[in-house]
Amino acid sequence: MLGRFDLGEFDWATAGSAGGRNENWLGTTVDAQRTFIKALVGSEIEVAHGLWRTGAFYRAHRTGGEALRTTTLIGQDAETAVQVFDGIDDARHGRQLATDGAFDPAMAAQAGTAIAALHTRPPGDLLEIERSLPICPLITCSQV
Prior knowledge:
The N and C termini lie far apart (about 40 Å). By secondary structure, the chain is of the alpha+beta class.
């Protein structure tokens, strides 16, 4: 699959597993490009919605300005439920940073600015971008 995105073969000798609910690997291609590979795990509908939401986020990201800083989605494949991103070494999520006492006010402000950039999009734009169903489409909020 990486060949379809002009990345060459993944060098599994450089790969390390990353934590999370999906199967994730960070490594280097034989052409020396750092790459993060995510194989989505879950039911068929959960995987389909995960792929759709990722695509929707990156479509919103393109028009979100500098507030939405993230890695690059190189491509994804619905048949194999695999997503490929640029690799970022030593990346940590906010929960890890907070646990370590490193989630400072500047990071909180940056996160708030990014969330605001997503939440201030015109509703029409969001309807065009996000059309997937909630994870439990048969259960209403009052039943949860």
